[in-house]
């Protein structure tokens, strides 16, 4: 169950979140220059595939984004056409860290995945975040491999 500070909400990303969504993601990594048109184009692409792309945010008392998180639901052939949830792009605004918003984001996305019938949820993280994900109920399972271009 998602428990948030008074007045905060866990909800789906909205088009009007443009500026604050990007600002919050900059805590995680390089975002680059994204125009409102590029954002709208990508937002609409996600909207066209709502069973796959499920971008979420936590908004503060003013409705502004302070945390981000994406759930992707992959339909597989294995495990009798099972579904796997993938959690990506978790970021909490610097001034809002330590208020259990990260935990609430992971809890919210994990509950959504379970409700949609996923048999597991997976994510990649750096070694310094392992303790955080363990507090969220996740366990180490293997090694991430990457080939960059
Ligand atoms: N290592 C160990 N424990 C941690 C860490 C950490 N890096 N971060 C938080 N915790 C602990 C907290 O102390 C708390 O423990 P408690 O319940 O005993 O008090 C518990 O985890 C929950 O912490 P939250 O308050 O929910 O953490 P927060 O809201 O600050 O979010 C996060 C954590 C998401 C890592 C945040 O610091 C952040 O945005 N960091 C920068 C971006 C980032 O690294 N994102 C994750 C990328 S991985 C991915 O996207 C799949």
Give a quick set of tags describing it.
149 residues, alpha+beta, Aminopeptidase, five-stranded mixed beta sheet, 5 strands, 31% helix, globular, binds acetyl coenzyme *A
Going by CATH, the architecture would be 3-Layer(aba) Sandwich
Low-confidence stretches: none
Shape: globular
Work out the radius of gyration.
Answer: 15 Å
Number of domains: 1
**SSE series:** EHHEEHEHEH
> Averaging pLDDT over every residue, what do you get?
97
Helix count from the secondary structure assignment: 5
Distance between the termini: 39 Å
**Annotated CATH homologous superfamily:** Gcn5-related N-acetyltransferase (GNAT)
DSSP helix fraction: 25-40%
Relative strand content: 15-25%
Backbone structural class? alpha+beta
Tell me which ligands are bound: acetyl coenzyme *A
Helices and strands in order:
Blueprint (H helix, E strand, L loop, with lengths): L8 E4 L5 H8 L10 H13 L4 E7 L5 E11 L2 H4 L1 E10 L8 H15 L2 E5 L7 H6 L14
Parallel strand pairs: 4-5
Antiparallel strand pairs: 1-2, 2-3, 3-4
The protein binds acetyl coenzyme *A.
